[in-house]
Design goal:
Length: 108
């Protein structure tokens, strides 16, 4: 088998409304479908499924401060958008890591 494309990924969230607001207002995704316990978001040619898990404990600050080798997802944007994204995260008090330079692209 040869993977052609990542169709979607799923994220467990404790607050579905808050997560939907982040993925739509901050990351620009659009809602494709809402169910009582999940929301399917679209971006470009992919999708993200948000699954309500009310008892999910929030991730610790350690995961953000040192993300390499830990479960996470990163989104690729144009290089010119990195600084405005960082400013937006700071303005909304969204925890984030400084951009990581991978040689051919940066991740925030």
């Amino acid at each position: 088998m040869r993977l052609r494309h990542l169709d979607h990924f799923g994220v467990d969230v404790a607050d579905l409304t808050r997560a939907e607001r982040f993925y739509s207002d901050v990351l620009g995704m659009t809602v494709q479908m809402r169910l009582p316990d999940q929301v399917l978001m679209r971006y470009g040619d992919g999708a993200c499924a948000l699954f309500l898990k009310p008892d999910r404990a929030p991730g610790g600050r350690e995961q953000i401060e040192n993300p390499l080798g830990k479960s996470h997802h990163a989104f690729r944007v144009e290089h010119a958008e990195l600084e405005p994204a960082r400013a937006l995260f700071e303005a909304r008090d969204i925890p984030h890591h400084a951009p990581i330079n991978w040689g051919d692209h940066d991740c925030l």
